[in-house]
Write a structure and sequence with these properties.
- By secondary structure, the protein is of the alpha/beta class.
- It contains 6 helices and 13 strands.
- The protein has a single domain, classed as Rossmann fold, CATH 3.40.50.
- Helices cover 33% and strands 33% of the residues.
- The strands form 3 sheets. Strands 1, 4, 5, 6, 7, 8, 9, 10 and 11 form a 9-stranded mixed beta sheet that branches. Strands 2-3 form a two-stranded antiparallel ribbon. A two-stranded antiparallel ribbon has the order 12-13.
- A hairpin with a 4-residue loop joins strand 2 and strand 3.
- The radius of gyration is 17 Å and the shape is globular.
- The structure holds 1-O-pyrophosphono-5-O-phosphono-alpha-D-ribofuranose (PRP) and uracil.
- The site of 1-O-pyrophosphono-5-O-phosphono-alpha-D-ribofuranose (PRP) has 23 residues, from strand 4, strand 6, strand 9, helix 4 and helix 6.
Length: 206
């Protein structure tokens, strides 16, 4: 399992605004879009391309086009905030959904909805979930993707906690994680510190 921490001055500025408790939900949504653009660009950096030729207005030109099936799977609710950036960047994306919710007392994830394409063996699958806290939600979603044949699974997370990274190293060792920050750890309620707070609540103003 590999953790890729994306490093860019513009990304740090976005993270500063996301972390700031006074940021409004409207701004939070726009910032989520922007940070996701950076992370998706990095997570897709090694996708295969095939050579083709097109006619420019002046002459023929050798070009390269994306040559793999790409599936994006946001985890409801919070992962929805990352989806638009993904489909805007990656042409031909198929989209599936997992609805997962942590129990407020136990922090155990429960699956309440799933609609994910089958036969994922030839696809590169991007799991979109902004918070990797205990890792229970991501581990559950990755197991669901693997049950559908997925072999290349990449988690795109805005903030990761060491506990979640460790859990995925044990339960889903082939997963690549792309994140903007590796934070200090979890508090007693399993929230990431310093973190972003409750991502879904801040995104949707609930
Ligand atoms: C958040 C987040 C992840 C999960 C991470 O979802 O979006 O899915 O917690 O925590 P974990 O790593 O400890 O499993 P939440 O359960 O708050 O649901 P929501 O997105 O509907 O608000
Ligand atoms: N889910 C969140 O929204 N935030 C955390 O810090 C942990 C889980």
């Amino acid at each position: 399992m590999a953790l890729h921490l994306v490093d860019h001055p513009l990304l740090h500025d976005i993270m500063a605004r996301l972390r700031d408790r006074s940021t409004t939900s409207d701004d939070y949504r726009a910032l989520t879009y922007r940070v996701s653009t950076f992370l998706v660009a990095e997570a897709t950096r090694d996708l295969p391309t095939r050579e083709e030729v097109v006619e420019t207005p002046l002459e023929r030109a050798g070009v390269r086009r994306l040559a793999t099936r790409v599936v994006a799977v946001p985890v409801l609710r919070a992962g929805i905030g990352m989806l638009q950036a993904f489909v805007d960047l990656v042409p031909g994306t198929e989209v599936g959904y997992f609805g997962l919710e942590r129990n407020e007392e136990t922090a155990q994830a429960r699956c309440y909805y799933e609609k994910v394409p089958k036969d994922l063996g030839q696809a590169v699958v991007f799991l979109l979930d902004p918070m990797l806290a205990t890792g229970g939600s991501a581990a559950m979603a990755i197991a669901g993707l693997q049950a559908r044949g997925a072999r290349d699974v990449r988690l795109v997370a805005i903030v990761a906690a060491p506990e979640g990274v460790e859990l995925l190293a044990q339960r889903a060792p082939g997963t690549e994680i792309f994140s903007a920050a590796l934070d200090r750890g979890l508090n007693g309620r399993k929230y990431i510190l310093p973190g972003l707070g409750d991502f879904g609540d801040r995104l949707y103003g609930t």
